[in-house]
Amino acid sequence: MSEINREAVAHLAQLAHIEMTAEELDKMAGELDVIVDSIKSVSEVAGGDVPATSHPIPLTNVFREDVPGPTLTNEQALSGAPEAEDGLFKVPAILDEE
Predict the structure, then answer these.
(1) Phi and psi torsions of 88, nearest 5°
(2) How far is CA 90 from CA 21, 36, 95, 96, 97, in A?
(3) Is 25's pLDDT higher than 90?
(4) Which pLDDT value is given to residue 17?
(5) How many CA atoms lie within 13 A of 43 on its CB side?
(6) Closest Cα partner for 42 from 28, 32, 52?
(7) Least packed by Cβ within 10 Å: which of 32, 50, 85, 97?
(8) pLDDT for 52-82, tens place per residue?
(9) Choice between 29 and 62, residue whose per-residue pLDDT is larger
(10) Which of 9, 11, 3 is nearest to 28 (CA)?
(11) Beta carbons of 4 and 33 less than 8 angstroms apart
């Protein structure tokens, strides 16, 4: 078995500011332990002759070539904006920074 135990999960939950009950800690420790062991067993099977992959089927880019086309002027882009200032969209602040 791996090193995932209740104390490790409690520590990670504290770092992430996640409140967890004792039952949730026990359940999560068991689930994470199974996940880590599963990954470990797959890593042991994959030898040097097995290429690393993120997907079982090779993927290709299906997007078209990026070709510049007609663009809006600054005035056209801002014409539907609720607020604009100095040629830019004006939006409410989302952070309490000065």
Answers:
(1) -125, 155
(2) 43, 47, 15, 16, 17
(3) yes
(4) 95
(5) 6
(6) 52
(7) 97
(8) 777 888 888 888 888 999 999 999 999 999 9
(9) 29
(10) 9
(11) yes
Please state, as a whole number, how many other Cβ atoms lie within 10 Å of the Cβ of residue 77.
14
Query: Nearest 5°: phi and psi at 2?
Result: -85, -170
Locate 34 and state its tokens: 């199974």
Query: Which pair of tokens denotes residue 79?
Result: 């014409």
Give the model's confidence band at 10: pLDDT under 50 very low, under 70 low, under 90 confident, else very high: very high
Residue 41, Cβ density class (10 Å: 0-12 exposed, 13-18 middle, ≥19 buried):
exposed
Give the integer Cα–Cα distance in Å for 36 and 5. Answer: 12
- Residue 1, pLDDT > 60, answer no
pTM of the model: 0.45
